[in-house]
Amino acid sequence: MDEWLNKKDLEFREWMLDERRRLGIDRAVKAYVSAKETALQKMPELEEMRKEVRLIKEESIRKMPELAKAAMDAIIDLKGMAYLAKDAESAQEIFKEVVGRGKLVVKSKSLTSEEICLNEALEEAGNTVYETDLGEFIIQLRKEKPSHIINPSVHVPREEVAKTFSQLLKREVRPDINGLVSVAREFLREKFCTADVGITGANVVAAKTGTIFIIENEGNARFVSNAPPIHIAITGMEKVVPTLSDAFKVVQVLPPYATGVLMAAYVSLITGPSKTADIEKTIVYGAHGPKELHLVLLDNGRTEMAKSPDFREALYCLRCGGCMYECPVYRILGGSFGNNYFGGIGIIWSYFTRGPEGVAAAINACTKCRRCKAVCPLEIDVPKMVETLKSRLVRDGYSHPRHREIMESIAKNKNPFGLER
Ligand code: SF4
């Protein structure tokens, strides 16, 4: 454990000195903060709406198992397939079973799929997987980990993207942002049309109707969920809310806080597989959209989180990412500290979904400035959860070796400096 913590410390130091990473994050933070402020000024009604969404999330988490079941029943009634995966491994098995081997898979951004290491599992099973969200595509080509939940390649400046695309196309690509977007568009277009399976996340699911909501700006999730003959959506159980009108409220609150837009460019609502009854009123599945629709709801620690009065609030998170941009530590270090969830809220999520090792080093980076709570649309008390988790980690033997030295010195010498009295 100590060896691992020391390794992490070195990794943090490397990130801190990585000027290119800092440049990318700096540019993105400036653009985000000013766009969000403008959006909030234009939508004063958001103030009331975000409070309503908090109440919706409180109710949804209280009823999480019942709502998950209701959503699954509704999807099965619509001739879709629905699964509840208790952990990452069982979720991977479901995907391997549905996707099969030797398939071309296109994916839109999904943190839940990263939580279960889906790409690795599908590739090991002999499939080819393409990320189609631009940021995820860049990260996939660079064999890196995302550094933000909404903008995964936020740490990669345009000059680096140009180098990556030059290697992909084996010709020089200039660091012009418009040109770089066109490169990805041209490269991925053919993949959408020839893919066997499309995999998306879901930002919210309405239990009563079994409707899956996908919010995005690029338009890639529309292709992914519509062009291939099979669509599989994966999301956490906490994303299920009771009704369509509850889900629409989440849809209105999320985009201004996530990207500083009044509304996302695209919101897809999917209620069952594609079908037609235009010939003799006979229902045929798979008209222009996918013939098969599968929803995988992931537990992987969420039930435990929901039962915990100390950490339940983490399940209200909309994954807007706003708290990360505003976090002084994130601005310097960026990254996920080796996990797939980011910032203070990410520490809590990583603890429940991946275990204590991954968060034991990162948790000490928190400065307790409490800014994450102040900017959170749902006022989630992340700092309080971080403090509680820190105590739990120390209790369970996951304290940092330097901290142990200090504690031992205080006990022995009555000072933290290791000096004998
Ligand atoms: S904790 Fe709040 S600000 Fe941070 S990602 Fe979640 S909803 Fe957004």
Any overview of this molecule?
Helices cover 52% and strands 12% of the residues. By secondary structure, it is of the alpha/beta class. The protein folds into two domains: 2-20 and 309-410, Fumarate Reductase Iron-sulfur Protein, Chain B, domain 2 (Orthogonal Bundle), CATH 1.10.1060; 42-303, Rossmann fold, CATH 3.40.50. The strands form three sheets. It has a six-stranded parallel beta sheet, with helices on both faces. It has a four-stranded mixed beta sheet with strand order 8-5-6-9, with helices on both faces. A two-stranded antiparallel ribbon has the order 10-11. Strand 10 and strand 11 form a beta hairpin. The longest helix is centred in the first third of the chain and has 24 residues, at 19-42. The structure holds iron/sulfur cluster. Iron/sulfur cluster is lined by residues 317-323, 345, 376-378, 380, 382.
Blueprint of the fold:
Layout: H1 2-16, H2 19-42, H3 46-62, H4 64-77, E1 81-85, H5 88-99, E2 104-107, H6 111-115, H7 118-124, E3 128-131, H8 134-142, H9 158-169, H10 177-194, E4 197-200, E5 204-206, E6 211-216, H11 220-226, E7 230-236, E8 240-241, H12 244-259, E9 266-270, E10 275-276, E11 284-285, E12 292-298, H13 302-307, H14 322-325, H15 328-333, H16 343-354, H17 357-360, H18 371-375, H19 382-395, H20 401-413
Parallel strand pairs: 1-12, 2-3, 2-4, 4-7, 5-8, 7-12
Antiparallel strand pairs: 5-6, 6-9, 10-11
Helix pairs in contact: 2-12, 3-12, 9-10, 16-19
In short:
The chain has 421 residues and is α/β, with parallel strands linked by helices.
